[in-house]
């Protein structure tokens, strides 16, 4: 990941420069990935029976 792309991701997450001092690059990448997954409509969701089989 390039520096400009990293800073773009930070801007898209709404992070301030002060917050960047407290977060790691990996955590910011995870936050961006989870934000992108928030709108995904999963076609199959596990229920308790599936979790018990797992």
Blueprint of the fold:
Blueprint: H1 3-13, H2 17-20, H3 25-37, H4 48-53
Helix pairs in contact: 1-3
Walk me through this protein's architecture.
- There is one protein chain.
- The protein has four helices and no strands.
- It has 54 residues and is mainly alpha-helical.
- It has one domain.
- The longest helix has 13 residues, at 25-37.
How would you describe this structure in keywords?
4 helices, elongated, single chain, 54 residues, mainly alpha
Secondary-structure content class: mainly alpha
- So what's the overall shape? elongated
Tell me the β content. Answer: under 5%
Number of separate structural domains: 1
Low-confidence runs (pLDDT<50, min 5 residues)? none
- Assembly type of the chains comes to single chain
What would the average pLDDT be, to the nearest integer?
91
Cα end-to-end separation = 35 Å
Radius of gyration: 16 Å
Q: Helix coverage percent of residues?
A: 55-70%
Instruction: Give a count of the beta strands, DSSP E runs of length 2 or more.
Output: 0
Number of helices: 4
